[in-house]
Design brief:
163 residues; alpha+beta; binds adenosine-5'-triphosphate; binds 2-amino-6-hydroxymethyl-7,8-dihydro-3H-pteridin-4-one; 2-amino-4-hydroxy-6-hydroxymethyldihydropteridine diphosphokinase activity; nucleotide-binding; transferase; Hppk; 2-amino-4-hydroxy-6-hydroxymethyldihydropteridine diphosphokinase
C-alpha cells in the first residue's frame, strides 16, 4: 500500500485539499484509490498557527518513490505553497507516508515518513481508510490511532470531490 498525508491550514482549507487530491488523481501514472474524511487538528510542532484540516489518501502508481514525491511537490507548488517556517502554516502539504515496504533514508526522501507513526493527525484518517493494515512495528493503523487518541483530532466531514 502507498499512502499520502495531506494537510492545509491557510485559505480555503477544504478546497485546497480537494484540489490537491484532484491534481494527484489527474497526474499521469497515479490512481487515487481511497480518500479519508477530513479531520480538524490542532497544530503540532509550531503551535502559534491556525488549526489544520488533514486527510490521508491511498494511491496506486507506476511512478517510483522519487517520481511520486516530485508529483506531490509539484502539486504543492501549483497550489501556491510557500515554504517559510518549518512546521509553519501552509496552503497544502503532501507527505509520502509510506510506499509499500520501501525503506529510504535520504534527506530528500525518507520512507516510511519518519514521524507519521506518532502523528495523530495522520493515524486517525489513515485508520479510516486502512485500519487493518499493519503499518508500523507490526501494528495496524487502527491500533496506532487508538493509542494516539489525544483529543487533538476532530472529525470535520467528508471531502467534496470532483468540485
Ligand atoms: N516521506 C516524505 N514525504 C514528503 N517529503 C519528504 C519525505 N521525506 C523527505 N521529504 C523532504 O522533506 C521536504 C518537505 O519538507 P517540508 O517543509 O514539507 O517539511 P514539513 O512538512 O514542514 O515537516 P514534516 O516532514 O515533519 O512533515 C521535501 O522537500 C522532501 O524532499
Ligand atoms: N495538526 C497538524 N500539525 C502539523 C501538520 C499537520 O498537517 N497537521 N503539519 C506539520 C508539518 O508537516 C506540522 N504540524
Amino acid at each position: 500500500m502507498i499512502c499520502l498525508g495531506l494537510g492545509s491550514n491557510l485559505g480555503d482549507r477544504e478546497g485546497n485539499i480537494a484540489a490537491a487530491v484532484a491534481r494527484l488523481a489527474a497526474w499521469p501514472g497515479v490512481t487515487v484509490e481511497r480518500v479519508s474524511s477530513l479531520y480538524e487538528t490542532a497544530p503540532l510542532g509550531y503551535t502559534d498557527q491556525p488549526d489544520f484540516l488533514n486527510a490521508v489518501a491511498s494511491v496506486s502508481t507506476t511512478l517510483t518513490p522519487h517520481e511520486l514525491l516530485a508529483a506531490c511537490l509539484a502539486v504543492e507548488r501549483a497550489l501556491g505553497r510557500e515554504r517559510k517556517v518549518r512546521w509553519g502554516p501552509r496552503t497544502v502539504d503532501i507527505d509520502v507516508l509510506f510506499y509499500d515496504d520501501v525503506v529510504l533514508e535520504a534527506a530528500e526522501l525518507t520512507l516510511p515518513h519518519p514521524r507519521f507513526h506518532e502523528r495523530c493527525f495522520v493515524l486517525v484518517p489513515l485508520a479510516e481508510i486502512a485500519g487493518e493494515a499493519p503499518v508500523y512495528g507490526g501494528k495496524t493503523a487502527g491500533e496506532l490511532a487508538a493509542a494516539c487518541d489525544d483529543g487533538t483530532v476532530r472529525f470535520f466531514g467528508k471531502l467534496r470531490q470532483g468540485g
